[in-house]
Amino acid sequence: MDGFFPYGVQYYRPPSPPKKERTKDLRQIKELGFNIIKIQPQWNWTNPKENVFDFEETKELLDLAQKNGIKVAITTILENAPYWLAKKYPEARYTSFGGEVVDLQSACGTPSGGWPGLCLDHPGVRKAARKWLEAITREFRKHPALYIWHVWEEPHMEANSYYEMSPFPANLFCCCSSSMDKFRNWLKLKHKSIFSLNEHWHTKYSDWEEITPPARPCGGYSLLMDWLKFSEESLAEIMSFRVETIRGVDNGHLIISNSGLNTLDCGKDNWLLAKHVDEWALSLFPRFGNQCEPLCSIGRTIEALISSAKGKTCLVFELQAGGGSWGKGIFRGVPPAPKEIAAWVWSSIAYGMKGILYWCYRPETTGTESPGIAMCDLEGNLTERAETAKKLGQIINRYPVFKKGKPSLSEAGILHNRERVNLLRCALEDNRFLSRSVTGIYQALWDKNLTVRFVHLDETSLQEMKKFKILYFPFPLSLTNEQAEKVKQYVYSGGILVSECHTAQYNEYGYCSQIVPGNGLDEVFGCIRKDVGHSIEEEKIIMSDGRKVTAKGYREVYKLTKGKIKGKYSDGAIAVVENIYGKGRAVLFGTLVFESKENSSVLTRLLPEDIKPEIKVSPDIFARTLTYQKEMAIILINTRRSITEVKIFLRDRRFTINPKEIWQGKQIKKRRDYLSLTLEPLESAVLYMI
Ligand SMILES: [Zn+2]
Q1: How many CB atoms lie within 10 A of CB 195?
Q2: Residue 170: pLDDT band by 50, 70, 90 thresholds?
Q3: CA of 177 relative to ligand 1 center, distance in Å
Q4: What is the pLDDT of residue 186?
Q5: Which string of DSSP letters, residue by residue, matches 541-563?
Q6: 3-state secondary structure of 30
Q7: Separation of CA 118 and ligand 1 centre (Å)
Q8: Distance 429 CA to ligand 1 centre (A)
Q9: What DSSP assignment string belongs to 427-442?
Q10: Is the pTM of this model over 0.85?
Q11: Residue 261's pLDDT is what?
Q12: Chain-wide mean pLDDT for the chain?
């Protein structure tokens, strides 16, 4: 369906919404201009007995959608398993490191029970899941309303949220005997022999069967580092199972998965997961609770998702449509204002997202998500949020540039690897250092209105890396030899690398390098660490051009081997080193310099001069462009706290004829060198020109 921009709502998750309301709802959904609904016919709900499949309710929904000219995304949820299956295979219940097994129950996102499902590493569960996936695919593959199979709501080890809703839970799943067999087989493939494993881990195992998970993470690294890597690859294997099972029955429809809320520093590798699907999607809930997530943070999440998709079409498959909270308690949070929803949608489109589905249409009727996050009230009446969504859809559908346009890519990127994320998890540390560092450097580039791509070191070839003139590497605590070699070659062949303290401090098994930067990267930076401690006070580093940056977190001191001093601590110790390596250049800061917003001007001065945004605005606000053939859209959002008159200077002179503001019909003032208009805080404007 070329040119189809999916614009719709999550509609059905049993038992919501009430059955008697559905005919009226679908009619109203059509009137709002939505062209797709997402439905979740859950496993335990539709496979209540062994070999009994009941898709009657699902079919009614697809028929209703068809009657109204609406397409359907069918979400196949395996995170609720049938109770008969748990009875048949009690050993397949998720089992923690500590040996606790999880019985099936209802949960916030699975009100009809069966949560958190059963372990898909168990052959009996895998077979039953395949049978259900094949049955539902066979049932609906020829239904005219079907648009796409949505195979995983948000990939993660579901049982990990049994103890706490945290990306770094103290207890990790799954350690049932099937999962342990899978882990040991993974270890055998990776290490080849128990001797080799002992060499890497510095252990004395005599047999694979002796390897058991620790009762809980206690601060040791090697076993856990491999366990976490295995867990990421295991999730990707389960994604492949879901996709290939459906594709085996229906090769004619697209297959998509959400990636979830967090796309960089949680327990999964989005690059590995996205490989298996046709399209890749995101959940976005910027206003859970009272605080609204900054627009920059939303950008980081979206651009990380787009990076991991490596050219595949990306969509927002869940966008918050009402007040909500994190699945806990009865607090509902402040519902998003219409201008917030508009800012989320327009910025998503500006980054290149090609579909928006709101979560959700009608409020949930039970569980801790009830009665929230919806664009209707409990009786199904529309709120002003629904009216805003309607208006947004009308504009998006009218202009091809939103369906097919692309943003212009900058040549600045941020390096990413999983080892440093996992080392923090093994160190019983939360992810705040890494998260602040990534967010800080992203914001420095985002404030410049540059498109940013995250570059995964294992999933990006050297040729692809060379497309970036500059790469920033936040808190690169742990690297494999292969990753370090790629970084070396990138700089040697002409790239600019900017890195922070602790570069390659640890290898992939969590062992310290004797020389830091490790893995031979000292040669690239032209220096060696002399000492390291914490930067307790916010010490100022004086750069060689007299500018100052603030030290954060760590205080690494260097001695030179070849590089030049670029900055010193207040006591004269070397804090920043710059080195020419091959045709390229590397700059190393001895602290978490990316974190602080006040350091951003020093960091962005390292950008090559020709890395510039498509348009310049004054004062600086969010300003991005999309182009498609002869069309151009400029998406503006006032990210300042006051009413602002914005001047827009176009670099590309092709597009200065007859611009019009199509979102709110605002007046544009035309001057000789620029256009201008006035925006309230967080207000969006969309300039269209052809
Ligand atoms: Zn298991």
Answers
A1: 10
A2: low
A3: 7
A4: 98
A5: EEETTS-EEE--SEEEEEEESS-
A6: helix
A7: 8
A8: 25
A9: TT--SHHHHHHHHHHH
A10: yes
A11: 74
A12: 94
- Report how far ligand 1's centroid is from the alpha carbon of 96 (Å): 9
pLDDT at 614: 84
Instruction: Output the six-digit token pair for 593.
Output: 């310099």
Q: Which residue has the tokens 């032209």?
A: 526
Domains and CATH numbers, the chain: 7-175+213-385 (3.20.20.80), 412-604 (3.40.50.880), 615-689 (2.60.40.1180)
Tokens representing 284 are: 């976005």
pLDDT of 164 reads 60
Where do the DSSP E strands lie in 465-571?
Answer: 470-473, 496-499, 527-534, 540-543, 548-550, 554-560, 564-568
Distance 161 CA to ligand 1 centre (A): 15
Q: Cite the beta strand spans of 537-637 per DSSP E.
A: 540-543, 548-550, 554-560, 564-568, 574-581, 584-589, 615-618, 622-628, 631-637
Neighbouring residues of 675: CB distance < 8 A, sequence distance ≥ 6: 647, 648, 650, 656, 659, 668, 669, 687
**Distance between start and end Cα atoms, the chain:** 25
At 163 the pLDDT is 66
The long-range contacts involving 46-53, CB below 8 angstroms and separated by at least 24 positions, are 46/132, 46/136, 47/82, 47/128, 47/132, 47/135, 48/82, 48/84, 49/82, 49/84, 50/82, 50/84, 50/85, 50/88, 50/128, 53/132, 53/135, 53/136, 53/139
Crossing angle between the packed helical segments 123-140 and 222-249, to the nearest 10 degrees: 30
pLDDT bin (cut points 50, 70, 90) of residue 656 is low
Q: State in Å: Cα 159 to ligand 1 middle.
A: 10
